[in-house]
C-alpha cells in the first residue's frame, strides 16, 4: 500500500481530486436530480454513460439489463477490476428529488445512496487520467441498475452471468454507503417469497367443515415462527405482510403471507428454505387431512420476491487486505460488516469482492430526509482511500 | 287455526288480498327502487312510514334508530304481536335498483330480500282493515333497519331494548325470505371480531430476535383452527380476512385476522369465545416469552364486527304451532330451519319468535341478479299463511 500512496502519480491524482471536488459535488446534484426508481433507471444510465465517456473511459456502453459501463484501459492482461456504484434509488416515481443545500450539506432522496459514489467514481477516473496513471489491469467502471429491494441485484447478477465482460472480472468493488471505515466483506443472502394458500372457499356457516386456506397458512406460519435459527452464522426469518380473504362470513379462497429468510451462510439459508417448504407441505397435509376436501383441496404456491445469494470474501484475499490498508492509510480504523449489497453476487460466485463507502458522512438513507455532508477534508480522505484500494488491486505501471 | 281461517272476516280479507295483489306488486317496485344500503335506510323508512299511515295504522313513527312502525289497534290488553320486515339491503350506495319485469317476475337487487315482505305486510293491513277485523291484541307492524351484515340486527335490538314499546311485545314475527314452508325457529348466534396484534416493529435482519406480531397471530390462528366444535348444537368458526405488514423486510407493527364464530346454542358460543380469548392470551405469552421485548411487547385487541345472540323458540310455544299450522292450512309442509335473522334478538330475550317467508318464490338473493316471481296463486297462498299466523297470535274478536 505504501508503494501506491507514495507514488508521485498517485500523489498528483490526489491533488487533482482536491481541485475537482467542487465539480464532483455539482455532479452529485446533477445525477441526484435525475429520478431512478427501481426498474426506471434508463434516463440516469444514459446520462451516466455520457459522463463516463467524457471522463475518458473507452468502450462505454449500456448493457442488456441497463448497466452503464466503460473501461479504464490498463497495460497488461491481468483480470479486470470492476468498480461499481448503483444508479437506482428506493424512491418511487414522482418523488421530489430536488437537492437542497445548507453549507456543505446536500439534502435529497438518493443523494447518498448511491449517487455520491457515482460522482466519486467519475472524479477518480478524471484524476487518474489527468495524472497519467496506467494500471496493469483494465478497470471496469459501472453504474449499475437494480441494487435496491425488488431490483434484487439484477444489474450485477447480469454483469457476472450474461454480460460478455463478466468472466474477465477478477475482483469487484461496489462503492456503496458513505462511512469510509465500514467495509462489507460478508453478503447476507436472502430468499423472499409470497406463500399463497388457495382452496374452494365457501360460506362460513353453511360450508363449515370444508378446508380453509387460512387454517393452513396459520399452521405453516406458527411452525415457521417456532424455527430456531443459529446465532452464528447469523440467520434470520420473518413473517411480514399478510393478506387475502374477502368477507368475514366467507371461508376465503386465497390468503397469503410474505416471508423473508436471510443468512450470511449459503448452507444455513438453504437448510432454512428446505425447513420452510417442509412446513408448508405439513400444513397442507394437516388441513387437507382434518377437514372436508369434497369441494377441493388446499394448495400452496411460492412467488419469488427476492433471491440474493449469500457469500463472503475471506480475510486472506488481496482485496480484503487492500481495502483495509487503504482505509487505514488515510486515518480510519477499518470495521468489516455484514450486509446485503451488490457484492453478494461476486462473493457467491467466488469472485473476491468488497463494498467500500464513498466517503464523507450523512444519514437518513431510504427516507425523504436523506442527506450527506460534502465537507472537503473528510470527503477527500474517503475518496483517496477508494482510489488507493482500486489501484492496489489494479496494480501500478511505473 | 280452523277457527281463524274459516272466519267470515278472514275469508273476506283473503278476497281483498287477491283484489289488492296488483297494488301490492306495484308497491314492491316502488319500495325496491328506493335504495337502502346498510346505515342508509332513512329515505326508505320515511316512505314506508307514510305507507303504513295510508294503510290505516295508528301512532306511526320513526323511532330512535330509524325503524318505521305503527299500531294496528286490538280490543284487549294482551301482549303486543310484532310483525317486522327489514328495510335494509346488502347492496352498497350507487347500486342500480331499477326493477325489470318479465311477465310476473321482477328482477332487482333487494326485490325479495326483504322488500316483498314490506309490501306484503302493507297489503295485509289494508285487507284486515277493509274486512273489519279487530284482533284481541295490538299488532305492531315494523319496517326495521339493520338486519344485514354490519347492520348487526341493530333495528330489532333497539326495538326490544330501547324503544318504549319493546317491553309490551309478547311475540314476534319477522317476515323474511320467500318460501312459505321454510320457518326459522332457531337463531344462529355469532360473534365476529377483528383481532389485531401489535408490537414495536423493526428491520427483519437488523432487529431480528425482537417480538413479531405476525408470530403471535399465527400461533393464535393455528390454535383456533385446531379447535374441535360440536356438530350438535351446530357450532362453527372461521378465519377469514388477513391483513397488515408494510414491507417484506420489516417486522410488522400491526397485523390482523377477522374471525367469525357461530352457534345455535348461546352456551356453546360463549364457551368458544372464551376458548378463543385464551388462545390469544397464550399466543401473546408464547411470543413475548420466547423473543426479545426490550423494544416493546406484543399486545392484542378485539374490535367487535358483529354480535348476534343465539336463541330458539321451542316447539311448544304458541307461535311455533301457529306458524306451522298456518303454513299447513294453505297446502305447504312446514320445515323448521336454523338461520340468523332479526328473530335472534327476541329469541335471545326469551320472547317467542319465528321468521316466516313472505310467499311466492325467487332466487339469487344478495346478488345483482336477485329476482322474485309474483305469480298470484302461489304468492297469495303465502300471504294468506302470513295473515293467518299473525291472527292466530293476535286473536280474533267476534
Taking the sheet with the most strands of chain A, its summary is: 6 strands, mixed
Give me the strand/helix succession of chain A: HHHHEEEEEHEHEEEEHEEEHEEHEHEEEH
Beta-strand portion of chain A reads 25-35%
User: Helicity range of the residues of chain A?
Assistant: 25-40%
Helical segment count of chain A: 11
Q: Describe the oligomeric state of these chains in a short phrase.
A: homodimer
| Alpha carbon gap, first and last residue of chain A | 15 Å
- Write down how many β-strands of chain A occur, each being a DSSP E stretch of 2 or more residues: 19
Protein described:
The structure is a homodimer of 398-residue chains. By secondary structure, chain A is α+β, with helices and mostly antiparallel strands. Chain A is 37% helix and 26% strand. Chain A contains eleven helices and 19 strands. Chain A has helices at 2-5, 8-19, 21-32, 42-55, 111-130, 154-161, 213-226, 266-290, 318-329, 344-349, 376-394, and strands at residues 58-62, 68-72, 80-86, 100-102, 105-107, 139-144, 169-175, 182-187, 189-198, 202-203, 235-244, 250-251, 254-263, 299-308, 311-312, 335-339, 353-356, 361-363, 371-373. Chain A has a six-stranded mixed β-sheet with strand order 1-2-6-3-7-17, with helices on both faces. A four-stranded antiparallel β-sheet of chain A has the order 4-5-19-18, with no helix packed on it. In chain A, strand 18 (361-363) and strand 19 (371-373) form a beta hairpin. In chain A, helix 2 (8-19) crosses helix 5 and helix 4 (42-55) packs parallel to helix 5 (111-130). The model of chain A has no long low-confidence stretch (mean pLDDT 96).
